[in-house]
Write a structure and sequence with these properties.
The structure is a single chain. By secondary structure, this protein is α/β, with parallel strands linked by helices. The chain has one domain: Rossmann fold (3-Layer(aba) Sandwich). The chain has a five-stranded mixed beta barrel with strand order 3-6-5-4-7, surrounded by four helices. The two termini are 18 Å apart. It binds 1-O-phosphono-alpha-D-ribofuranose (R1P) and guanine (GUN). The site of guanine (GUN) has 15 residues, from strand 3, strand 6 and strand 7.
């Protein structure tokens, strides 16, 4: 479901849930909603996820602003004939995550006294969590956290020149002691704890980042959307996904 509303003077659409490759969808299916959002007029994309931390400075509940990613997923969403209406055949991935939005998010986090880290996210296909050796590999490869999503959506967003911001909640740590207890239940619980700060951060980022303001007569939607946002974030806790798209 797509939830439409406003935050401040920005029009926002939140996707309730995402598709994962491990669920059996193709990468084209996984990323189809991003294409739809672009054609709805979305200019900026905010993607969130839950991930396992391999950076020893992180702990369960850490908020990590994704500054880059490593694509270790088995199928590429842009494989096959390129549709030039969407974007070019060969996509520049030098800046997949908006430097401007990252800077703004860090500024907001400091003001709101929310601890944030930045880091590199590595995407694996899942659905298994990593073995200890795989977590070590992730670290050696230069990533700070690992998950099973986000990378395909961000690639497709960049294909269509959507400005993208990504944030990850560290829900478990990929070290010797911690991996014994890694489970989806633990992931959900950790995501739930981080939710209030993530909500404040994302909301304020949407308010402050450059974008097209609403016309004055559209302002009445605000309080309705506040309600939606609350329920979206609840949903996020259950399904670990709140990509928010705004234009
Ligand atoms: O990346 P999201 O969907 O946020 O969630 C992460 O957490 C789930 C595993 O617990 C997997 O879906 C993994 O990718
Ligand atoms: N691959 C992977 N995905 C996750 N999602 C939440 N935690 C993890 C993790 O440790 N590994």
């Amino acid at each position: 479901a797509l939830v439409f509303g406003t935050i401040g003077v920005k029009k926002v659409v939140a996707m309730q849930g995402r598709f994962h490759f491990y669920e059996g969808y193709s990468m084209k299916e996984v990323t189809f909603p991003v294409r739809v959002l672009k054609y709805l007029g979305v200019e900026k994309l905010i993607v969130s996820n839950a991930s396992g931390g391999v950076n020893p400075n992180y702990k369960v509940g850490s908020i990590v602003i994704i500054k880059d990613h490593i694509n270790f997923m088995p199928e590429h969403p842009l494989r096959g004939k390129n549709d030039e209406r969407f974007g070019p055949r060969f996509v520049n991935m030098s800046e997949p995550y908006s430097v401007e939005m990252i800077a703004k998010a860090k500024e907001i986090a400091q003001e709101l006294n929310i601890e944030v880290h930045d880091g590199v996210y590595l995407g694996l296909q899942g659905p298994t969590f990593e073995t200890l050796s795989e977590y070590r590999m992730v670290k050696i490869l230069g990533a700070d956290c690992v998950g099973m999503s986000t990378v395909p959506e961000v690639i497709v967003a960049r294909h269509m020149e959507l400005e993208t911001f990504g944030v990850s909640i560290i829900t478990d740590m990929g070290d010797e002691e911690s991996i014994l207890s890694v489970s989806h239940k633990e992931v959900l619980e950790a995501a739930k704890k981080a939710e209030p700060n993530l909500r404040k951060l994302v909301k304020e980022l949407i308010v402050r980042v450059n974008g097209h303001p609403l016309k004055p007569n559209q302002m009445h939607c605000l309080s309705i959307f506040e309600w939606h946002l609350h329920h979206c974030l609840k949903w996020y806790i259950q399904f670990l996904y709140l990509p928010t798209f705004f234009w």
